[in-house]
Amino acid sequence: MSAFAALLARDIRLATRAGGSAMLALAFFAAVAALVPFGIGSEPKLLARVAAGVIWIAAVLANLLALDRLFQADYEDGSLDLLALSPLSFEGVAVAKVASHWLTTGLPLTVLSPLLALLLHLPIAAYGALLVSLLIGTPAISAIGGVAAALTLSIRRGGLLLPLLVLPLLTPVVIFGAGAILAKLDGIENGAIWLLAAFSAAAVLLSPFVAAVALRLNLSE
Amino acid sequence: MFSYANPKRFMELSGHILPWLAALTAILFIAGLYLSFAAPPDYQQGDTVRIMFVHVPAAWVAMMAYGFMALASLVGLVNRHPLADVAARQAAPLGALFTALALITGSLWGRPMWGTYWQWDGRLTSFLLLLFLYLGYIALWNAIENDVRAAKAAAILALVGVVNLPIIEFSVQWWTTLHQGESIIRKDGPSISAVFLWPLFVMATAYTVLFFTLLIVRMRTDILDRRARAAVLGANA
Fold first, then answer.
1. What value does the CA radius of gyration of chain B take, rounded to a whole number of Å?
2. What rounded mean pLDDT belongs to chain A?
3. pLDDT digits (tens, 9 = 90+) for A171-201
4. How many C-beta atoms surround the C-beta of residue A13 within 10 A?
5. Do B171 and A172 touch (CB under 8 A)?
6. Do residues A212 and A89 make contact, with C-beta atoms less than 8 angstroms apart?
7. 3-state SS class at B172
8. Cα(B191)–Cα(B199) distance, rounded to whole angstroms?
9. Spatial distance between the Cα atoms of B153 and A60, rounded to a whole number of angstroms
10. A186 to A183, B121, B173: CA distances (angstroms)
């Protein structure tokens, strides 16, 4: 097994087994979305209109949960030093970490989202747009979040700082992601899904390099 | 250029320049404020048009400060220049302040013009996000104890931010467009009258010089603070 595959498999195993973050992030995602009707009322028309935004925001927040430990745990117990000595480059480490984060958070969220859409009365016609937008958009959250995670790995309460760094950068994802679903609801063609795809592709391609620079600086003393 | 970037030479040179720069700032503000009040009231907006003279320059300087911070971050990261790190670090709170000032004056202008303090329009919203970017940058600097590491991490964040800013700006513009279009830099020349353009130009210069005056004061304080800490550590050793 290559070093990349081994790291990916290890991180997925860590996230999905007892004490891992995958189930917790999913439960958080569902809990946030379920809390919204209690705040704004249960009127089906109102819920149908805000469902896209609520699901997208809940998805972004749930993604943040597991991010702060993405590199920090390995940094604290020394695994990151061993990874630095391994044949895998820092860029490769970053790609494996981001991929494992997406596979254990973004992908399960996408699969669960129709259930929440049902609770929030999203019209069935928009389910396709919901699934596609989450599928395309969540990798960007993992990628940009990975950069912030690499930057904050040495900070003890990094989990509190990380949302402040990441959320402004994720505005385009939320705008285009929710926009694609709303366009479907309104029966218009606004290109949001293509803009989301472009943003996501750029974020996924560029982020590993930036994260690798951040990892290098945190390990150099 | 880098020969002046030595902290010792910077302290000497900036010490000489600072009083003159401060005096220039004061003169520009006096002239700018005089012109702002001397300008005739707008035929549509009345006296509230004068808010423009304190609002638009604040917004310009807020954006320029981010550009300056990103440039200093790049120099700090690539050339490993400690003075560039100091410049980037000290530009951030000033940038945040000018951003907040632009938001506050904008909301005060919005009340009589749009009938509301806050409107989720493209420019207001992107300035709110700019404020968060500044706050994140400042928070990251303060959270990392090791100064060298903090400088590099913050520099990476500033550069990620500067790449993202146009995209955020675009996405927010795409999301909503209620704000009036560009009225200063246009192909067919400025669309606002010269009686308003002059005060605006002088005030913009005043704000810019104010930014650099405050930046130099903050950089000098930062350097002196580092020296003081180093002296205390030396005395204790």
1. 20
2. 92
3. 999 999 999 999 888 888 888 899 999 999 9
4. 12
5. yes
6. yes
7. helix
8. 15
9. 23
10. 5, 21, 20
The single-letter DSSP state of residue B47 is: G
* List of residues 6+ apart from A43 with CB closer than 8 A: none
Number of folded domains that form chain A? 1
Residues B132, A195: C-beta atoms closer than 8 Å = no
Are A133 and A190 in contact by the 8 Å Cβ rule? The answer is no
- List C-alpha distances in Å: B80 to A218, B93, B97: 16, 22, 27
Which residue has tokens 């806050």? B118
Cα–Cα distance for residue pair B34/B17, rounded to 1 Å: 26
What domain range includes position A97? 3-219
Give the mutation candidate from A141, A171, A182 for the B interface (greatest B CB count, under 10 A). A171
pTM: 0.89
Subunit contact B156:A218, Cβ cutoff 8 A? no
Task: Say how far apart CA A102 and CA B175 lie, in whole Å.
Answer: 27
ipTM comes to 0.88
Residues of A in contact with B144 (CB under 8 A): 154-155
